Amino acid sequence: MSKNVNPYKDSTLGKKAQVTQMFDTISKNYDGLNRVISFGVDVKWRKKVVALVRKAEVDSIMDIATGTGDLAIALAKTGAKKIVGLDISTGMLEIGKQKVRQKKLDDTIEMVVGDSENLPFKNDSFDAVTVAFGVRNFENLENGLKEIHRILKPGGLFVVLETSVPTKFPVKQGYQFYTRFILPAIGRVFSKDRVAYRYLSESAAAFPFGEAFNNILRKTGFIDVENKPQTFGVATIYIASK
Q1: Which of 2, 27, 81, 171 could be stapled to 166 by a disulfide with Cβ–Cβ 3.0 to 4.6 Å?
Q2: Bridge-based pairing state of the strands 126-132 and 235-241
Q3: Angle subtended by helix axes 211-219 and 141-151, to nearest 10
Q4: What would the pLDDT profile of 139-169 be if each residue is shown by its tens digit?
Q5: In the sheet where 126-132 sits, what is the strand order?
Q6: Is the pTM of this model over 0.85?
């Protein structure tokens, strides 16, 4: 199970409330900082997720922890008739809604406020569910995965894109230096929230990745589980079914 890492160590709020507060605070800078922090490679990773979903030929998609909607918008290229982008942060969603309107995708993409651990949808509602850089922010990882399993149709596709930790020299050492010192420094310079990017690196380091996360997916009911490390292992794409 993942270690529970919270954004604000002195806060009396639970992780869910802290994560909401953090993303509301950094929402205006989030997209630009993501491009800088990942050197733009996150765009390439999302394209791989879209390709996997397109291959499945689905009509309905739920993108959980959609943030400002980058993945939800990219998923429109799959030809799905209905895409729901869900996030707990209204600040992130407002930016996402603006982007959806600019792309003239209002008829396809609906952006909704919601809790990943208590999804406001019936059982077996979606052909595919995606989460990009969001599962490590769940307050209770297994509860969130069980909810995703519940709303996914039998035979449906579940794809997760999440950070992971490289295990081979010298990439491992370079990754540790970057996430421990460089990433928080970039966050302090460009973001109003001085602790947000420290949390993002700490939560990535604490999150179970690879076979550990595969096992949690299986435990929560998913089948045909596999993982595909990306860019020397700094991120991983997980694929599963119901």
Answers
A1: 171
A2: unpaired
A3: 60
A4: 999 999 999 999 999 999 999 999 998 888 8
A5: 109-113, 82-87, 60-64, 126-132, 152-163, 235-241, 223-230
A6: yes
